[in-house]
């Protein structure tokens, strides 16, 4: 991809920063963030250099209401929405509500803004999660034959995707990208390494559980591939189960 205008909503975390580095060399990147002056995530991970920011601008939004940021959606080639409260927290009622609301509110805000565009984006990719599938030890779970249960994580994914596809954006393709653990420099490895430091890195149960993962560079390549295939709509998995 070259000479495209890309909006990253919730783009200051690990995945957003890595996508900025990947796409920002030859494209214009606009990052929607709640804190314009705070560009690191909750793990204080920051991989962005001054050179990476040459084609990048930051615009403030609250993730739920229309503002000046909505004007940027005209003539956009690609919108990638990563916004949502981290699930790395205690599942009390307050946090559960914030997990739900932060995802659906952001989707609704983007959907309403796109709907008002005179020249709407070509493609909207929305993050989703492979945790929508049941915990399976007997067979792979994918977008064609995957089975759902109804625990909290599944409810989050269902509501997230339903809200996404409920948005009326007839001129904008929509892809829900079901991602599992995304690996790369730091990111999820930070809390993993913290567990190791406390001696909690041993085998869990049988040690034969499947671990769904994808590398961040492969996720970026998949986004490029989806963008280039104009006929694609729907739901796609970005990760595969590995022992």
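-> sequence recovered:
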């Amino acid at each position: 991809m070259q000479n495209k205008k890309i909006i990253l909503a919730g783009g200051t975390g690990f995945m957003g920063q890595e996508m900025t580095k990947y796409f920002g060399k030859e494209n214009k990147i606009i990052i929607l963030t709640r804190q314009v002056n705070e560009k690191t995530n909750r793990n204080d991970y920051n991989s962005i250099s001054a050179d990476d920011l040459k084609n990048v601008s930051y615009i403030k939004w609250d993730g739920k209401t229309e503002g000046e940021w909505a004007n940027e959606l005209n003539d956009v080639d690609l919108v990638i929405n990563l916004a949502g409260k981290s699930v790395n927290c205690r599942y009390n009622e307050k946090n559960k509500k914030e997990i739900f609301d932060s995802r659906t509110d952001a989707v609704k805000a983007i959907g309403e803004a796109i709907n008002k565009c005179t020249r709407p984006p070509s493609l909207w990719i929305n993050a989703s999660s492979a945790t929508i599938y049941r915990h399976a030890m007997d067979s792979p779970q994918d977008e064609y034959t995957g089975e759902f249960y109804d625990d909290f994580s599944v409810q989050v994914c269902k509501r997230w995707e339903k809200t996404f596809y409920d948005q009326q954006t007839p001129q904008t393709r929509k892809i829900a990208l079901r991602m599992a653990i995304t690996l790369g420099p730091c990111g999820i490895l930070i809390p993993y390494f913290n567990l190791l430091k406390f001696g909690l890195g041993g085998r869990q149960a049988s040690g034969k559980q499947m671990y769904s993962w994808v590398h961040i560079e492969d996720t970026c390549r998949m986004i490029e591939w989806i963008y280039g295939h104009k006929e694609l709509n729907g739901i796609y998995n970005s990760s595969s189960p590995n022992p």
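Strands lie at 5-9, 28-33, 56-60, 78-81, 123-129, 173-179, 181-183, 211-215, 234-237, 240-242.
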